[in-house]
Design goal:
This protein has helices spanning 24-29, 40-46, 85-102, 112-118, 153-165; strands spanning 15-19, 67-71, 106-110, 127-133, 136-141. It is an alpha/beta fold and 183 residues long. The model is unreliable at 173-183 (pLDDT under 50).
Length: 183
């Protein structure tokens, strides 16, 4: 059985991106969003979060840009649809504790369906949420999985760019502990 994937986190990030759960390739390699068809890394770059497209094995470089990555559920699976409601709800509670401890400016959950279940918010849509986790704003992005045919890479990049526009990353380059702007 593949192991859970370690978080790429630090206190006070601008954005903590949150996947649904690790895929089998991610669990096997130890790198988030590692499946070749996943569009997280291209969307992150095309939206302006990173100056170049990072590879999954360069995930620690996210910290240099005030960014991090975690998951709602730690258990790896071939598809997120294999998770059950109880796992997502428990993951939402664990994620809330993590966010309160790390205090990023924004939590960006990639996957509206998982967000709805994990946070008991059945009417949630993409974008900024009314919910706050302590001082952390919450944003929902489309799932970048290659299985999500509703979004092209350009559509994903545009959705990611909406979040980037409300963050102040310029002061964070090479300094994750730089003073933070509030959401």
């Amino acid at each position: 059985m593949p192991q859970a994937l370690p978080d790429v986190v630090a206190p006070g990030l601008a954005v903590l991106f949150c996947g649904i759960n690790p895929g089998l390739m991610s669990a096997a390699t130890g790198h988030h969003f590692a499946r070749p068809g996943n569009r997280f890394w291209p969307a992150l770059h095309r939206s302006g979060f990173t100056p170049r497209q990072l590879l999954p094995d360069e995930q620690l470089e996210l910290l240099e840009y005030g960014l991090g990555v975690t998951n709602v559920v730690d258990r790896p699976s071939a598809q997120a649809g294999e998770l059950n409601r109880d796992e997502l709800v428990a993951g939402g509670k664990q994620l809330t504790r993590k966010v309160r401890r790390l205090r990023p400016d924004w939590l960006a959950v990639v996957g509206v369906t998982a967000y709805r279940v994990a946070f008991a918010d059945p009417k949630a849509t993409f974008g900024r949420q009314e919910r706050m986790l302590g001082q952390t704003g919450v944003w929902v992005l489309p799932n970048p999985s290659g299985l999500n045919a509703h979004y092209t890479i350009d559509g994903l990049a545009a959705a990611f760019a909406e979040l980037r526009e409300v963050t102040d990353l310029s002061a964070r380059r090479r300094s994750p502990s730089a003073p933070r702007s509030r959401p």
